[in-house]
Amino acid sequence: MHVMLAWFAESPLPESARRLRRARAQRALADVVPPAYRRHEFGAEDWGLTVRHPVDPGAYRWPTVAAEGPVTAVSLGLPVGVDVTGGPPALAGRLLAGEDVHREVVPPFGLLALDPARFSLQQDWLGMCRVFAGEADGIRAFCTRPGPLAAFLHGSARPDLAGWASYTLCGHFGGDRTPLVGTRLLRPGERVTGRRRAGGGWTVTGELRYAVDDVVMSGFAGQGRPLDEQLDRAAAALTTTASSVHRLYGDEVTLGLSGGKDSRLIAASLVAAGRTPRLVTNDDLRAEGEVARQLVQILRDRRGLDPEHRLVLGSAPANVLNIGLRERARRLQRLHDHQFPSTYLPRPAVRPTLPEQVRAASFTGAAGELAVGFWYPAADAQTDLSPEQVGMAKLLSAVPTAAVAAEVVTAERDRIAALFAHARGVGLRDLHLIDYLYLVERVRRWYTSAYTTGMVTPFLTPAFVAATFGLTPAQKRGRLLHTELIARLVPEWAGIPFVSAATGRSTATRVWEGDGAEVVADLLDTAHGPLTGLMRRPVVEQTLRTAVRGGRPDARILQQFTWLAVASERLEPATTRRSTGATYARITAPPQPRRPTNDSFARLRWIRRTSLGDRLWVTVRARVPRR
């Protein structure tokens, strides 16, 4: 991982003001950045740049910070898919010259290029790279984390309730929103440029360059092209990505091979390109492990390949419950500034700080959903719902809407409706509107590859994304791109059925197991700030009671409330109340026995279950005096 903080002021700042702001940002980073991280410092009285990253780059051939002559380049991620001739300084020079160096990049990737008189900061075309922006007191600042940015600019970190409303319903911070007031994520394709004036101080401007709408519409405009042309385009995109990664990383990459379609297609593209990756399979779902073993055995028997293949129980209770739920939540939130999905709470605890050694490069099959109509209604579904209604229901499903305050649901629906209006405005129609929403919301903000350098998402190669928007909805429902490409690349795998998430029962940990139920109950007692007010507490308590009594609760409700409540402890400390244990005592108390009744009418209420019985009941009740 890396941390970057850059700032540019309208006029020179006194040393005392610069020192104060730097100290505030450093305090915000102190609990996550290891002391061993390498530190780069640049700047003057009207600008500053701090970059922190692990000392050992491992097998990576692309440095985070590089300088040549007057040009300094800060790379936020890997430029997968980009022409990297000349290294980072050459790429930075092209950006300073005005080139759209991000057109072919596989998100996430951001680049800051600067020389003594100017700078340019480029977000990737999807807006996936975590570069946050803010402004205060004539200073424009940019950071890879919203917390240090808020501390540097404003001196405090206050929760942005609009952002948290998105998180509550979507499971991520929607659009450009963040957890903290006064910060925002750079938009897709956004470029910020600055020029230093002769007397000091900077003139900073922003613009939108090549972005997600350009990628999507380049594919959608090709509707009706021959299928082979679309398949060739998609296959070439995957091959190019594999080659690009191997130019940037001097070792074999790791791929998570499941029994599903997405990772199988990525694996097939690598095998066909002569690059056999290291394979890892999560065995929490038995069917996943069985199919992955079968695929690997086919490579051994029919191709003479012997790939390294590890099977792991990623979320087995023994690996998770040794650290309590509250601490798991605190670590995740601290490590990622509250942005990670709460669905990771039932997984093993992360380390308390950023890793001191860089993670090995890996491929992920995420974003393959764009090629299969993942959010589409079934082809034979009898529904009058519009694509907008279907997509909105899918996106706003981090928790049931009944568990969320009504005004929160209304505001978030309005935000999503504006996204759909924009998509129609650029020319999209029919079920492709749903794919657009999935791309700009779920892929951009929910995918965890945005937080890890070297986790490559080949399905986000611009040409592949464009190819998916060139398919018809029927072709996507038929998984045509996956099945045709797998049959073309590794035909031996073509007849093996795909595993879905509904295949079998997972042995993974549930959020209420271990100390989970007690922790959630305690949070219901203690966390009473505006963040937890986004959800309906009675619904949370009833869900927890169901879990304690051995029922089948909706885990989403407990996970989201836990995330909001733990965030409230850190961001709204004045609203935290004293722990009483009252809720836990209430939900674990044995149910009260039903009290017998002598009410004759009560014993006859079953009659009302029919329309005739209901009319008779009303008539008799009216004629018999009540005691």
Q: Any descriptors?
A:
six-stranded antiparallel sheet, Asparagine synthase (Glutamine-hydrolysing), single chain, 627 residues, alpha+beta, globular, 14% strand
Task: Please describe what this structure looks like.
By secondary structure, the protein is an alpha+beta fold. Helix content is 40%, strand content 14%. It is built from 22 helices and 17 strands. The chain has helices at residues 15-29, 87-96, 146-154, 161-170, 212-220, 227-248, 261-272, 286-303, 317-320, 325-336, 387-395, 406-425, 432-446, 462-470, 473-477, 480-489, 516-526, 537-548, 555-571, 582-588, 600-603, 611-623; strands spanning 3-9, 38-44, 47-53, 65-68, 71-77, 109-115, 118-122, 132-136, 139-143, 184-185, 190-196, 202-208, 254-256, 278-282, 309-312, 362-363, 455-456. The strands form three sheets. The chain has a six-stranded antiparallel β-sheet, covered by helices on one side. A hairpin with a 2-residue loop joins strand 2 and strand 3 (47-53). Helix 4 crosses helix 12, helix 10 packs across helix 19 (555-571) and helix 11 runs parallel beside helix 13 (432-446). The longest helix has 22 residues, at 227-248. The mean pLDDT is 92.
The tally of strands reads 17
Query: How many helical elements?
Result: 22
The strand order across the widest sheet is 2-3-1-9-8-10
Structural class per helix/strand content?
alpha+beta
Return the average pLDDT rounded to an integer. Answer: 92
Biggest β-sheet description: 6 strands, antiparallel
- From the spread of the alpha carbons, the general shape counts as globular
Q: How much strand? A: 5-15%
- Helix amount: 40-55%
Give the uncertain stretches in residue-range form.
none
Q: What value does the Rg take, in angstroms?
A: 27 Å
Distance between the termini: 75 Å
Region (Disordered): 574-598
Protein name: Asparagine synthase (Glutamine-hydrolysing)
